Amino acid sequence: MTQLPEHPAGDFPAVDAARSPEKETQPWQQEDLDLRNRLYGHAGVARAEDLLLKRYGLASTEEAFALLRSTSQQFNIKLSTLADAVVRTPAPDQDSRLWFPNRARYSAPRVPGLPVEHGSHSSQGAVLKAVLHRVLSITQTPMGNVQLAESGRLSLARHTGLNKYFTDFFAFVDAPTTACAQAAAERRQVTVRDVATEAVFDEDSRHAVLQAGSRAVHSVPLVDRKGVPLGMVSSHHERPLAGLTHAQLAALQQTGADTGRWLSWHWYTIVLDALERLHFTAGGALD
Prior knowledge:
globular; 8 helices; Beta-Lactamase; six-stranded antiparallel sheet; alpha+beta
């Protein structure tokens, strides 16, 4: 029987907090950012296409891509998320009509304190929007972003108040040179009191944060019941921070735990539903 896959959060690179600031570098050019992001975005989809071609005997990569795209749209999940799930999930049993037979299903968990729109409690977009709103309300700033963890990498899922260079530069984070990477690796909240001076950033990342008008960052892991980060939410502040209060930190930790529990439900319910539909549509279970 096919076992349920682990959420593909993966391990994050260790952070050397004692690292010295690196020498100043030139900002990335837009074309370099565009190329990097296309490569990151397309690599996982290409692997999934190749796997589907071999597993189901599809006619072409175009057919495989169309199957991935239609399924991701039907279940309202990112194409990259579905592709990563296809690659990382053990194959269904041969000739099985179901990829995950006897899988238990649960209703979406409550997310207390999050202003989720009525009827949208199973929508990842609505929940992430509410999480970002809640965190920025607690930290009293208009700038912030949410990232999701996939395969040891953080990918930008939602943002507000941050410019295009910032969002393109941090579209994917897989190096231990940011506050969010440190928070993910150490599984704890991290405050960067002054981006201009703290050693956690390399100079490229430091420039990307500062040019967006952010001088301080606070990152909160979105953790499952085992404490594994499934995502990250960060607030950005126009001035250096003296620190957050105990009440703020406690509220942020609770928000991170509630949201992580919801993200885990979404993976084991909505994403696996999408895999099940893809398996059925591809016809492999009906041969």
